[in-house]
Amino acid sequence: MTDAVKIGFVPLSTAPKGSLVVFCDDGLKLGPATRKALGAAADTIKRAAAANQFKGKSGSVLDILAPDGIKIQRLMVVGTGKSDGPKAADFLKFGGVTAGRLNAASTAVTVLAELPDGAMKPEQAAALASGLRLRAYKFDRYKTKKKDGEDAAVRSEISLAVEDVGAARKAFAPEDNVVDGVIIARELVNEPPNVLYPEEFARRAGQLKKLDVDVEVLDVKAMTKLGMGALLGVAQGSARPGRMVVMRWDGGKRGDQPVAFIGKGVCFDTGGISIKGAASMEDMKGDMGGAACVVGLMHALAARKAKVNVVGAIGLVENMPDGNAQRPGDIVTSMSGQTIEIINTDAEGRLVLADVLWYVAKKFKPKFMVDLATLTGAIMVALGTDHAGMFSNNDELAERLIKVGQETGEKVWRMPLGPEYDKLIDSQFADMKNTGGRHGGSITAAQFLQRFVDGTPWAHLDIAGTAMGAPKTDINHSWGSGYGVRLLERLVADYYETRKS
Ligand code: BES
Ligand code: MN
Ligand code: ZN
Question: With bands split at pLDDT 50, 70 and 90, how would you rate the model's confidence at 421?
Fold first, then answer.
């Protein structure tokens, strides 16, 4: 894991060394412990703020080197905005903007987790710590030279000075597991496709066994036996064989219906015989962002011992043009028995998901299935990169996803489904075709998937715009964003875990 910070908790009264981070509101007001720690340097802040037009706006930073009146190297003041207090999500941002300023000189950092009105609550300090880790993550495994002044390869040790060390550690422990899950997902998306192909992806998913997740890997022979002609039709054009990985975490009551998450894992998408253009084709190493999210999510849930039964299933293939590749015009038979006419071999994700969705619906009869897939370029045309497209056959599930999306900042926007769209994928030769014409491309893709959920409550997240290459945010500067891990972890935590008694 390319993790640039190590987080610890210390008492509020700890004397800072190295760099010190403190918080003030939009009246430049500091908390009592902060004023005490700063001593004469509180006045330095006033003068530096005036000189720099710093007003304490939420997420703004005043950076003072070698501050007068205190023996530290650097003093960072982070604005918390309006004096009526920041909201839950703001603490992630504060951590993010702080980590964004750390550099080679910031190896020892103390963050005084206090608001002007008093010490941060344990959950607030935990969110701050999560923001620090999320923003500090950097994928630099393949850089052999570090540029001058670049914040590469520094592992900052960050001490959060908090009122109650035990309570803060307790609040952070599960959040820390979630951040690990996000970073695992980002790593998988960032890895180059010569390194991360289906077998290697399956091997990495196998590391979840260390957390007592049951991991089953199905090879081509096993999938052939199950009749997964849709997934295998995509896989057959590659020298690297396909895999399906089924992960199970049983933290709930014995026999309780599981919840299920399904991911598109196209380790590289050339388009196949309907080959893509050269422009940005390298981005198609990230076409396994859905599968990466499912692995990261399983990690988060298992590591924090979530009280729920969960199934994670991913279809891993490489979509390549080859003498053995499938052709437009081919008709394949899916595991469900439904036949599919291939119109465009670049609409491969839905073929992979068709068999995995059907397998999970039939084998596990889950409470619901959520699939994640970098499925269509059209979803970026519709929604840009700030919302994932969400399609669902179940209003309750859809509303819950919208709600946890707003809470976590991993937003979803519901898109329509309906028989008028569905008939666009009827085929003259088979039960259906794998593309539906020029219009409503994300919707016809979702209609295709719906034909394989067997009536199970289901939501499909089209994450083509959010999983990779989206603009940088306060808490993410990585190409692979890890989108979906925090969203679905929250969905499970808020609605599907048996309450602790
Ligand atoms: N993986 C792509 C979708 C994609 C494109 C994801 C750009 C991220 C960035 C998917 O397999 C694909 O090629 N979809 C086609 C479908 C079309 C052939 C019906 C598309 O969107 O053009
Ligand atoms: Mn494609
Ligand atoms: Zn694809």
Answer: very high
Q: Which atom of ligand 1 is nearest to the CA of 271?
A: 13
pLDDT digits (tens, 9 = 90+) for 153-162: 557 899 999 9
**Ligand 1 contact, 376 CB (< 6 A):** yes
Q: What is the pLDDT of residue 148?
A: 59
How many angstroms separate the alpha carbon of residue 376 from the centre of ligand 1? Answer: 4
Compute the distance between CA of residue 220 and CA of residue 236 in angstroms, rounded to an integer: 10
**Ligand 1 geometric centre to CA of 134 (Å):** 28
Q: Decide whether any atom of ligand 1 lies within 6 Å of the 435 Cβ.
A: yes
The tokens for 58 are: 């939420």
- Lateral strand order in the sheet of 412-414: 214-218, 243-250, 309-319, 259-269, 369-373, 458-462, 388-392, 412-414
3-state per-residue secondary structure call for 58-69 = CCCEEEEECCCC
For the record, the structure tokens of 213 come out as 């997740």
pLDDT tens readout for residues 50-90: 999 999 999 999 999 999 999 999 999 999 999 888 998 99
Ligand 1, residue 274: give the atom nearest the CA: 18
Check if the beta carbon of residue 15 is closer than 8 Å to that of residue 41: no
Chain centre distance of CA 264: 14
Facing residues of 61 across strands?
Answer: 78
Amino acid at 306: A
Atom of ligand 1 nearest to the CA of 376: 21
- In angstroms, the CA 57 to CA 27 distance is 9
Contact between 263 and 293 under an 8 Å Cβ cutoff? The reply is: yes
Q: Is the CB of 287 under 6 A from ligand 1?
A: yes
pTM of the model: 0.97
**Is the pLDDT confidence value at 501 over 60?**
no
CB-CB neighbours of 250 under 10 Å: 17
Whole-number Å distance, alpha carbon 83 to ligand 1 midpoint, is 46
| Residue 198 DSSP one-character state | H
Task: Tell me the per-residue pLDDT of 31-61, one tens digit each, with 9 for 90 and over.
Answer: 999 999 999 999 999 999 999 999 999 999 9
What is the number of residues in the chain?
A: 501
